[in-house]
Amino acid sequence: MAKEIERKFLVADDGWKAGVGTTSKFLQAYIATGEDRSIRVRIIDGERARLTIKLGRDLLVRDEFEYDIPVADAEELMQAAIGIVLEKSRHRVDYRGFTFEVDEFAGFYHGLIVAEVEMRSTEDRPDLPAWLGREVTGDKRYSNMAMATNEDLSAELGHGLSNPPL
Amino acid sequence: MAKEIERKFLVADDGWKAGVGTTSKFLQAYIATGEDRSIRVRIIDGERARLTIKLGRDLLVRDEFEYDIPVADAEELMQAAIGIVLEKSRHRVDYRGFTFEVDEFAGFYHGLIVAEVEMRSTEDRPDLPAWLGREVTGDKRYSNMAMATNEDLSAELGHGLSNPPL
After folding, report:
1. Which CATH number belongs to the domain containing residue A142 in this structure?
2. Which of B13, B3, B2 is nearest to B163 (CA)?
3. Could you tell me how many CB contacts below 8 A there are between chain A and chain B?
């Protein structure tokens, strides 16, 4: 079990593109959700898959349990997804000792770009690159779980946005 | 992914005790449930643990995905159980080519004994030993998920029954 401590931001401009280290393609879906928990399936670059359980109401710090599973299992589990399967490219951008993960959505949320930085403790104060926009840590509308499973939200954010919402 | 095909029975008398092969002690809890799915954590004999996802509305045949996880993870996940943690001894009794699993509950459901037989196909017709009572396949009251998470049911079946309900 790991603690997940992260902050989340919208992205103001394309400045991040110059700093991309690695990129992975994610398919991501939820097979169970609750107010204080989610069970997520991810297929990474079409060749690896993981099952992740997140527990806890705190959007900044949560318990996270993660297990490798066969890709074939993940594909079957995605057939039983609650809501939609999210598609995104995750770009890793190192900036002053921290790695920012820039999630560029495709498919239903095409046009939406969100950046997360994972911290080692809640006391960490990462320097923020200039291309970050408004912080949305704790804004449930930008949780991937809500984006996948919440129909109202999909109507608000989805269907090919050309710019991230402000 | 495996298909789970099983029938479930109450137990009429102690005849099964003579045929017990192996016995395991289970702690079992649910971390997410839905009409057509459950995510279960089990600790077996205090030394192994498994995460199991079951999908499908059909109580006779369901898709089952099962993964070994660390016991420490299972213990943490059980802290977040929905409802109660079930305690039972699972006795395996071979009978004419099929294995009957006799679940003898302890703790909250002390006194309740239920037997299941797992089949390879829905066409299998296992011979039924004389110690089996009424068949309860498909009776949601005897699903472990309902027993763990349904408060009404706990009141009906739980608190130290001395005999299985008829």
Report:
1. 2.40.320.10
2. B13
3. 54
Q: What is the distance between the alpha carbons of residues A108 and A153, in angstroms, rounded to a whole number?
A: 12
* Distance from chain centroid for Cα B133: 16
The complex's ipTM works out to 0.82
Task: List chain B residues with CB under 8 Å of A39.
Answer: 31-32, 39, 53
Which pLDDT tens digits describe chain A residue by residue (166 residues)? Answer: 677 788 999 999 999 999 999 999 999 999 999 889 999 999 999 999 999 999 987 656 678 999 999 999 999 999 999 999 999 999 999 999 999 999 999 999 999 999 999 998 888 999 999 999 999 998 988 989 999 998 666 666 655 443 344 3
The DSSP secondary structure of A99-147, one letter per residue, reads EEEEEEEEGGGTT-EEEEEE-SSTT------TTEEEE-TT-GGGSHHHH
Q: Which two tokens stand for residue A84?
A: 């939609």
- Structural domain harbouring B117: 2-157
Full-model pTM: 0.84
Q: Does B164 map to a domain?
A: no
Name the token pair of A39: 């069970």
Whether B166 and chain A come into contact, CB under 8 Å, resolves to no
